[in-house]
Amino acid sequence: MKLQFSKMHGLGNDFMVIDGVRQTVTLSKETIGQLGHRNFGVGFDQLLLVEKSNTPGIDFRYRIFNCDGSEVEQCGNGSRCFARFVFEQGLTNKTEIAVETAKGVIYPKLEADGNVTVNMGVPRFHPTEIPFQAPEEAIIDPLIVAGQVHDISVVSMGNPHAVQVVQSANDAPVAEHGPLIENHPRFPQKVNAGFMEIVSRTEIRLRVFERAAGETLACGTGACAAVVAGIRRGLLDESVLVHTRGGDLRISWAGAAQPVMMTGPAVTVFTGSIDI
Ligand SMILES: N[C@@H](CCC[C@H](N)C(=O)O)C(=O)O
């Protein structure tokens, strides 16, 4: 089977994006893992599969897979690339799109300046919604990692995040502690581990060790989760510029029961086809 795809990125978090509306696509976990390989495949952090939606009022459905082939619930940088993809490919002429993911509907909007703004939905904090083993919801939970207590804030943006505040994002032990947090037994479905440096009430630096993908140059849901965690801790204002290794995102959150808004770029690098 020959598969047409676009290679895209959002701040260096890179994607293979496949049109499953005009192509019949069947992908096993193994095939996704092979396609994701940086030496033997196309290479990506996540694969995005765009499909038709059967729900009235919803334009598309899109599925998200980590580079190991595991399917995940949500992807911030991916949602912006999804919107750019369906527009560029002529799958829609709408600039405001409603798209179903495995964890609800999100609303990307293509801006006149080339950025994409996404209503990422309402963040969740209850341990059962992460999922996280804890007796009750808290703003800060102590987590023992490498024999030391780390103060984490757990946030679900559809997918699970554990965010901690560090003195310096640059010097944070992301490669050492990231996998320990990702696979910590208190997170039965694993977790994305965020390391946030507070620069000011309106600016942070962030690195994220992503579940099943390792540290990426940027993580959109990780940025949403970090800003929400910082606001809940009383450290950040409502609108925050997030510096990632791949570039900047603007994240805003007006507080409890409100959706998180994310604005940033989405870039097509090339289109191609591959025999699978
Ligand atoms: N890069 C993404 C998040 C992708 C999914 C994540 N690795 C998970 O397993 O939850 C983003 O931009 O949000």
Automatic annotation (TrEMBL):
InterPro entries: DAP_epimerase_AS, DAP_epimerase_DapF
GO molecular function, one term: diaminopimelate epimerase activity
EC main group: isomerase
Active site: C75, C219
Catalysed reactions, as listed in the record: (2S,6S)-2,6-diaminopimelate = meso-2,6-diaminopimelate
GO biological process, one term: lysine biosynthetic process via diaminopimelate
Record localization: Cytoplasm
EC number(s) reported in the record: 5.1.1.7
Chief location bin: cytoplasm
Site (Could be important to modulate the pK values of the two catalytic cysteine residues): H161, E210
Binding site for substrate: N13, Q46, N66, G76, N77, N159, N192, E210, R211, G220, T221
Listed GO CC annotations: cytosol
Biochemical pathway: Amino-acid biosynthesis; L-lysine biosynthesis via DAP pathway; DL-2,6-diaminopimelate from LL-2,6-diaminopimelate: step 1/1
Protein family per UniProt: Belongs to the diaminopimelate epimerase family.
Classification via PANTHER family: DIAMINOPIMELATE EPIMERASE, DIAMINOPIMELATE EPIMERASE, CHLOROPLASTIC
Subunit: Homodimer.
Descriptive protein name: Diaminopimelate epimerase
Native source species: Chitinibacter fontanus
Upper lineage: Bacteria, Pseudomonadati, Pseudomonadota, Betaproteobacteria, Neisseriales
